[in-house]
Amino acid sequence: MAGRVDLDGNPIKQITICMIGAGGFIGSHLCEKLLSETPHKVLAVDVYSDKIKHLLEPATVTWADRIQFHRINIKNDSRLEGLIKMADLTINLAAICTPADYNTRPLDTIYSNFIDALPVVKYCSENGKRLIHFSTCEVYGKTIGAFLPEDSPLRQDPAYYVLKEDTSPCIFGPIEKQRWSYACAKQLIERLVYAEGAENGLEFTIVRPFNWIGPRMDFIPGIDGPSEGVPRVLACFSNNLLRREPLKLVDGGESQRTFIYIKDAIEAVLLMIENPARANGHIFNVGNPNNEVTVRQLAEMMTKVYSKVSGESSIETPTIDVSSKEFYGEGYDDSDKRIPDMTIINRQLGWNPKTSLWDLLESTLTYQHRTYAEAVKQAMSKTTAN
Ligand SMILES: NC(=O)c1ccc[n+]([C@@H]2O[C@H](COP(=O)([O-])OP(=O)(O)OC[C@H]3O[C@@H](n4cnc5c(N)ncnc54)[C@H](O)[C@@H]3O)[C@@H](O)[C@H]2O)c1
Ligand SMILES: O=c1ccn([C@@H]2O[C@H](COP(=O)(O)OP(=O)(O)O[C@H]3OC[C@@H](O)[C@H](O)[C@H]3O)[C@@H](O)[C@H]2O)c(=O)[nH]1
């Protein structure tokens, strides 16, 4: 760790980071990276700590003095301001961010993504502290191309679908499509952070993750989360594969996504943390434009990869179609296509993703199989016995 320098060759000083939502998927990987590869200190804030338990158990770690866990619900805890004051940088990851919640729990979604984030922005601004705020690629909503006629040749033109931080509009559906409650709340908090920068000099960076995936994402229903819960697509499909049941394709699985390996994405976040002069005042897309698939193609690839890593043949009918109303309920809608433009992050931080979709699925599904296969088998045999 000695002699670490930033992108401009200046020595990197040790800092203290208040990480809110540190116990989640992204937070757990970021904590791991900071503790194992940097000298920085982490004040980890979350209501859960299961995903960072391995980093907190003193017997196993050499960095025990560099991480503190604070079990705090940021909705209503006066200790939050004190922690932000103690830190040089605050990273806010806390949010309700699973699509199954957006249309079924729109109030919780809006409160979590906007109202609960307000004090964090305010405390950073008032105390002159730097903030890295996690937004989402969902703020782009649908592409302009989605509104062109099906047979329009312009649909092939990147100008109509590549998503650019400084020029693309945010296109959401009508209010009754409550899917957009999340995107809209995230958009408003982005505008607030940006305005605090413009009017009060807040030093900020906004991150727009494009489908980061990998180990520890969400939960497997009935194993380490509620049996009726609906996680994001990686965990939904992993659950189906573990239980040897067909993967459910919502509305034909035609939506397109670009998936990035969590470990590649975390490299980008570390560059933002350690290069404030290059990251402050910017909004960054963080994704892998080379890993685009339809959800149907994702299902097919995950089926093949899971077969390889588990040694089990795939089932006869690997996928089934299901309507969004049946799967998510009333008010669901979808982003059609999400390709991040990489100009700004390339220019400011010289960062590029590395891992192909096949490779990231292979390591992630190996993890899923090792972590869950036995527990799923036991849970299923119990259900059959009953
Ligand atoms: N994973 C992705 O691909 C992705 C994509 C776009 C945006 N994001 C954004 O990145 C951030 C982190 O996402 P993630 O995938 O790690 O999600 P996650 O659900 O795994 O992590 C969020 C964490 O925040 C905590 N949290 C929520 N409300 C809290 C509160 N009131 N007080 C304290 N802790 C609270 C949760 O307990 C959880 O551990 C979110 O803001 C999300 O919107 C993620
Ligand atoms: O079992 C499933 C689950 C999901 N899907 C589909 O797979 C696609 C991806 O679904 P995900 O659950 O990963 O969620 P989305 O990509 O729509 O949104 C996510 O993207 C960015 C983040 O802000 C959030 O983490 C989340 O909103 C959607 O089209 C969804 O309808 C299925 O076809 N079957």
TrEMBL record:
Leader sequence residues: none
PANTHER family (alphabetical): BIFUNCTIONAL POLYMYXIN RESISTANCE PROTEIN ARNA, UDP-D-APIOSE_UDP-D-XYLOSE SYNTHASE 2
GO biological process, one term: UDP-D-apiose biosynthetic process
Protein name according to UniProt: UDP-glucuronate decarboxylase
Cofactor annotation: NAD(+)
Domain NAD-dependent epimerase/dehydratase intervals: 17-287
Domain of life: Eukaryota
EC number(s) given by UniProt: 4.1.1.35
Localization, UniProt: Cytoplasm
Pfam families per UniProt: Epimerase
InterPro entries listed in its UniProt record: Arna-like_SDR_e, Epimerase_deHydtase, Lipid_A_modif_metabolic_enz, NAD(P)-bd_dom_sf
Keywords tagged on the record: Cell wall biogenesis/degradation, Cytoplasm, Lyase, NAD
Gene Ontology MF annotations: identical protein binding; protein heterodimerization activity; UDP-D-apiose synthase activity; UDP-glucuronate decarboxylase activity
Top-rank EC class of the record's enzyme: lyase
Gene Ontology CC terms, in alphabetical order: cytoplasm
Catalytic activity: UDP-alpha-D-glucuronate + H(+) = UDP-alpha-D-xylose + CO2; UDP-alpha-D-glucuronate + H(+) = UDP-alpha-D-apiose + CO2
Family indicated by similarity: Belongs to the NAD(P)-dependent epimerase/dehydratase family.
